[in-house]
């Protein structure tokens, strides 16, 4: 029988090395990582801002903490009973971590016109 060369014997010993994996995060550690703490040591909530343009009558769901309607057109727009003239805006804000679930109706005084322009800005939690 052939003998195993000395180099092969050394390599077979290295196969017994154990691989160590970092310990799994606890649910608390995962929660703290997702709900980050700012430099002042206070927690904060993540959000993003969405901006949309409307030029025809539409139902606009809020599902946001803050929603702002700005009439950039020359025609009036009625937002669920509140009339916005040219250049006027309407802002509806919630308290921290509140979400407005209202569906707002936007109706222009002239239904189809190149002068209709409503900008809607929503603050949404991520």
Please outline what is shown here.
The protein is mainly beta.
CATH architecture of one domain: Sandwich
- Please write the string of helix (H) and strand (E) elements: HHEEEEEEEE
Low-confidence stretches: none
Largest sheet descriptor: 4 strands, antiparallel
Percent range of helical residues? 10-25%
Give me the count of strands. 8
Q: What would the CATH topology of one domain be?
A: Jelly Rolls
CATH class of one domain, please? Answer: Mainly Beta
CATH superfamily of one domain: Jelly Rolls
Residue-averaged pLDDT: 84
Q: Whole-number radius of gyration?
A: 30 Å
Number of helices: 2
The separation of the N and C termini measures: 69 Å
The general outline is: elongated
Biggest sheet, spatial arrangement of strands: 1-8-3-6
**Beta-strand percentage range:** 25-35%
The secondary-structure class comes to mainly beta
